[in-house]
Amino acid sequence: MDTPVCDFVAAYEKSGAARLHMPGHKGKGPLGCEGRDITEIAGADSLYEAGGVIAASESNAAALFGASATFYSAGGSSQCVGAMLCLALQKSKSRVVLAARNAHKSFLHAAALLDADVRWLWPQPYSLLRCPVTPDMLEAALAALPEAPAAVYVTSPDYLGNVQPVSQLAEVCHARGVPLLVDNAHGAYLHFLPKPAHPLDEGADLCCDSAHKTLPVLTGGAYLHLGHGILSAEEGEVRAALSLFGSTSPSYLILQSLDACNRYLAGEARPRLAACVKTVAVLKADLAAQGWTVAESESLKVTVHASKRGWRGDALANFLRRKGVECEYADPDYLVLMISPQNSAEDLEKVRGALAGAGQGSNVFQTPPQMARPRQAMPIRTALLAPAEEVPVAAAAGRVCAAPTVGCPPAVPVAVSGEVIGPDAAAVFDYYGIKTLRVVR
């Protein structure tokens, strides 16, 4: 497969042209990549008005993923999440979006900027990161609304590797004329498995992938895919939506990385992924044999329920770090390892050996604190943009959440802008190490 963006930049680098344009390093610098870091010069195309090499590369990506159209993002899936929400609202008379509660904070930011009215799918018992949505639950939630929402929004896979039944959810949505939007940030590789399992394969109308999370792409590289469902959008509409949430100076290093990835996906990706999935399955089985509880998850994530073996997940992460293993995410309960075909056999042996040496921890197992569904006192937009102050969690009860306080990873808020902080929320904040939060003045 051709790589038009990479080819153009390589030719320009070799041309020796005097660079009297941005960026200021002029192709020279200590990192070694500056020669290929350019801007929208003649022939380089422009991401939000693409009609040349970028458009050709995106067309290659769409064919590889089986999308009706694919658009690049140099601002990660966060940029694509905003664009998806914007497109859904533009195509509907409703401002309501029905969303699974474990949404990334970029969804909340976009909802605030676009003035969406978010209604939450919130299964019990409460879990910060996991929000399993069943077809029956979705059907009941849709039936309870006075009119069809602009969209249904779910995250799949989530940070722990849980996967939603996207095909069944799509059927429920489409029967009511509602598009299904999927944050697939952690699953760009899923289409290239022996049995494709990408949200596009299962009927999603719009989908975003963080290519950089699971494919050999530089950080920030992502895709916005249009499916073959009930939501249609013209190219100009999609690019305009993306431009609302992205820089006017997208990184050409990231764009080249996405372009080069097409060649990988068209060639070696499928056999390498198939082999990697088998290797990861063996690792999961070996860890289970060592006595670890390995949660069910998508193929390339290893999610260890550390607290069931007497470890805090973050303490286990520190233990692994001393053994030369850096994890993706850890909290009081879980340790998450993200694996790709680019990991070596030696990498996985380090994991196997380190966890074998960890043994039984000394903590008493406890379940995360539960939180009642909070009351929404004001719209997300009003609260997020209101004057606010930072207060200790202990002093926040009864106050209205302003900007959600959350780190990345996992960037899933405990409390959402506009919600009243209940007394049980303090225990949840403390459990996840959040000591202060911003509340409306």
TrEMBL record:
This protein's cofactor list reads: pyridoxal 5'-phosphate
Q: What keywords is this UniProt entry annotated with?
A: Aminotransferase, Decarboxylase, Lyase, Pyridoxal phosphate, Transferase
Lyase among the record's keywords? yes
Q: Which Gene3D superfamilies match?
A: Orn/Lys/Arg decarboxylase, C-terminal domain, Type I PLP-dependent aspartate aminotransferase-like (Major domain)
* Domain Orn/Lys/Arg decarboxylases family 1 pyridoxal-P attachment site: from-to ranges: 37-300
| Gene Ontology terms for molecular function | carboxy-lyase activity; transaminase activity
Q: Where would I find the Orn/Lys/Arg decarboxylase C-terminal domain in this sequence?
A: 367-432
| A Pfam family of this chain | OKR_DC_1
The entry sums up its family as follows: Belongs to the Orn/Lys/Arg decarboxylase class-I family.
Protein name in UniProt? Aminotransferase class V-fold PLP-dependent enzyme
This protein's species is Candidatus Allofournierella pullicola
Q: What is the lineage of its organism?
A: Bacteria, Bacillati, Bacillota, Clostridia, Eubacteriales
